[in-house]
Specification:
The protein has 499 residues and is α+β, with helices and mostly antiparallel strands. It has 18 helices and 14 strands. Among the domains are: 231 residues, 3-Layer(aba) Sandwich (Aminopeptidase); 56 residues, no CATH class. The strands form three sheets. Strands 1-2-3-4-5-6-8-7 form an eight-stranded mixed sheet, sandwiched between helices. It has a four-stranded mixed sheet with strand order 9-10-11-12. Helix 7 crosses helix 8, helix 9 crosses helix 10 and helix 10 packs across helix 11. The N terminus and C terminus are likely disordered. The chain binds zinc ion. Zinc ion (ZN) binds next to helix 12. It comes from Vermiconidia calcicola. This is Protein spt10.
Length: 499
C-alpha cells in the first residue's frame, strides 16, 4: 500500500454524532446549502460554488481534472504526505463521499447545469477554479469534528479563490452538522495557507516537530501546524461580506433571512447589536445606511471599489494612506485588498507623466505594485536555492484526517495551493529593497516561493531589523524614511484578518 493520507479504498466515514439528522451517504444536502455565487478579488468576476453530496453527481471529466491536480501536488512532494498518485477510480469516492464543492467561473445555477456543461464539452482547466471537501476528522462519537481539503487550480491564479473557499467552508461545515474543524497537517513552509487559516480565525492548536520530509527540503524535517476552529458558535462573526447584508436585512425587517437555521439566527442577533440602520437622507434612491461604530458599512464589492478608486484619485496616495482615509468613514472586510486593486488599475499611477519630477512618494506610487513584485522576484534567486515549481505555484496543505483503522497510515490531507498570498499586492520599491539579502519578498510578496525553513517569525524579525537599520541610515531624508515606514507597516500588517 502506498503511503496515502488515508486508504482511498477504505469505506468513507460519515457523521454519526453531533446534531441530528445525520447524513445519509450520497443522500440530499441540507436545504440551506445551495449553489452560491461569489465575486473574485478583482471585484468583477463572478464564480459559483457548487455543492455535491456524492461523487456520482460530479461530471467524470471534471473529476478527472481534479484528480490530476491532486496528483500533481502529490508529485511535487511539498504539501501532501502521500508519495504515490491516487488512481482516478479512488479519487471521486475519496474527495466527494461526504461533501465536496467545486468553484466554477461564471454563473452556474444548479448541479444539473454542471452536467450539461460537461456534455457540451466544457474545458474544465479553464473553467474550474478550485474544490474543497468536508468530512469527519474522526469516526463515531467524534465524527462531528470535521476536516477540510482544498485544491486551487492554475486558472485561479491570484484571484483570492483559496480565501473564498475557506469562507464558504466555514459557512457550510456547520450547516452539515459539524461543530469544530481540525486541519491536522499544514507544513510550515506553506506560508500562504498558514496566512489564510490565521486570517479566518483558526487557532494554531499544535505543532508536530519535524513532521515533513519534503521534496524541496531533502536535508531537513519541516514542522507541521495543527489548526482548530469552532464552527458557527455564539459570537462567531460571519466572515464574508454577505454577513453585512444579512445584518441589514435583520435590522430593517426584524426577521431572519430565508434559510437561517437556529445557530445562524443566534449569531445574527448577537452580531446585530453592534450595528444600526441610519435612514438615507441624501434623497436618492439608495438604501438606508448600515453603520458600525460610526462608520458606514459597505457590503457591495463594486461600491467598495468605487470608494477606493475615488479615495486614491484624490492625491494618488499609496496603499496605507488611501486605506487610512477610507477607514475613517467606511467599514468593510479587507479594505486594503480593495485599495490595492484600485491602485493597480490606476492609469495615472501606471505611466509617469513626462517632464515632471516625481516626489519620493510619487516615485513609489508610480510603480504598479503587483508588477514591481513580479519583476523583482523573477530576477532573484531564492535564498534557499530550492527549485521553483515550473508553474510558480505555491503549494499548501490544509488538513488531514486520521482514521483509527488507518492510524499507521499518514493522515489524509487537504491540499491547497496558492499562486499568490494575500500579500501579493504589497508595494515593494526595488530601490529600497535592493540592499536586502533575504528572500522575504519572494515568499511574502510574490507567494511563489516556499517560505524560509526557519520560519516566518524569524524572517520577519530579520526584515524588521534590516528595515530599521536602513531607516537609521536614511534618517536625514525625512520623506524617504516615512515612506519606508509606510512600507514597513504594510509588511507587518495583519489587517487581512476579518473583524
Ligand atoms: Zn493613482
Amino acid at each position: 500500500m502506498p503511503a496515502m493520507l488515508d486508504d482511498p479504498t477504505a469505506p468513507a466515514i460519515y457523521r454519526v454524532s453531533g446534531p441530528a439528522p445525520y447524513p445519509v451517504p450520497f443522500g440530499p444536502l441540507p436545504t440551506e446549502i445551495q449553489v452560491r455565487q461569489v465575486t473574485l478579488r478583482d471585484r468583477v468576476t463572478i464564480a459559483t460554488l457548487i455543492p455535491f453530496s456524492s461523487p456520482n453527481q460530479v461530471p467524470p471529466k471534471l473529476t478527472a481534472y481534479l484528480c490530476e491536480l491532486l496528483n500533481r501536488e502529490i508529485k511535487k512532494g511539498d504539501t501532501y504526505p502521500m508519495m504515490e498518485p491516487l488512481p482516478l477510480s479512488s479519487f471521486g469516492p475519496y474527495w466527494f463521499a461526504n461533501f465536496g464543492a467545486v468553484m466554477i467561473m461564471g454563473e452556474v445555477n444548479s448541479v444539473e447545469e454542471i452536467m450539461r456543461m460537461e456534455e457540451r464539452g466544457e474545458d474544465w482547466p479553464s473553467k474550474c477554479l478550485g474544490s474543497f471537501y468536508v468530512k469527519p476528522n474522526y469516526p463515531g462519537r467524534s465524527s462531528h469534528v470535521c476536516n477540510g481539503g482544498f485544491l486551487v487550480t492554475d486558472a485561479a491564479r491570484n484571484r483570492g479563490v483559496g480565501r473564498l473557499m475557506g469562507e464558504c467552508y466555514l459557512e457550510w461545515a456547520p450547516k452539515l452538522g459539524y461543530t469544530y474543524s481540525v486541519f491536522n497537517l499544514v507544513y510550515e513552509t506553506n506560508v500562504a495557507s498558514l496566512r489564510i487559516w490565521d486570517a479566518l480565525g483558526f487557532k494554531r492548536i499544535g505543532r508536530v516537530k519535524g513532521c515533513g520530509n519534503l521534496e524541496s527540503y531533502p536535508d531537513q524535517f519541516i514542522d507541521a501546524i495543527i489548526f482548530g476552529r469552532e464552527l458557527g458558535g455564539e459570537g462567531d462573526e460571519y466572515v464574508s461580506e454577505e454577513r453585512f447584508d444579512k445584518i441589514r436585512f435583520y435590522l430593517k425587517t426584524g426577521t431572519y433571512p430565508n434559510g437561517s437555521d437556529r445557530a445562524e439566527k443566534s449569531r445574527l442577533r448577537s452580531a446585530a447589536t453592534h450595528y444600526k440602520i441610519v435612514p438615507n437622507a441624501d434623497g436618492n434612491d439608495e438604501e438606508d445606511k448600515l453603520m458600525l461604530k460610526g462608520k458606514e458599512v459597505i457590503s457591495d464589492p463594486h461600491k467598495q471599489y468605487e470608494i477606493a478608486r475615488a479615495a486614491h484619485a484624490q492625491s494618488h496616495g499609496g496603499i496605507n494612506k488611501t486605506t487610512a482615509t477610507i477607514a475613517e468613514k467606511y467599514h468593510w472586510v479587507r479594505i486594503k485588498e480593495t485599495v490595492s486593486a484600485a491602485i493597480r488599475n490606476c492609469t495615472e499611477c501606471k505611466e509617469p507623466t513626462p517632464g515632471t519630477k516625481p516626489s519620493p512618494f510619487a516615485t513609489r506610487e508610480r510603480r504598479t505594485p503587483g508588477k514591481s513584485n513580479e519583476q523583482s522576484s523573477s530576477s532573484r534567486t531564492p535564498r534557499n536555492s530550492q527549485p521553483i515549481s515550473s508553474d510558480g505555484v505555491e503549494q499548501v496543505v490544509a488538513g488531514a484526517d486520521p482514521h483509527p483503522e488507518q492510524q499507521q497510515q499518514p493522515a489524509p490531507m487537504a491540499p491547497m495551493h496558492f499562486q499568490a498570498s494575500d500579500y501579493g499586492d504589497m508595494p515593494v520599491d526595488p530601490q529600497i529593497m535592493a540592499g536586502m539579502h533575504h528572500s522575504w519578498q519572494d515568499s511574502n510578496a510574490n507567494g511563489s516561493q516556499p517560505m524560509l525553513v526557519d520560519g516566518e517569525d524569524d524572517a520577519e524579525t530579520r526584515l524588521r531589523e534590516e528595515l530599521e537599520a536602513q531607516m537609521m541610515r536614511d534618517q536625514h531624508q525625512d520623506v524617504y524614511a516615512s515612506d519606508l515606514k509606510g512600507q514597513q507597516d504594510r509588511a507587518f500588517s495583519t489587517d487581512e484578518v476579518p473583524d
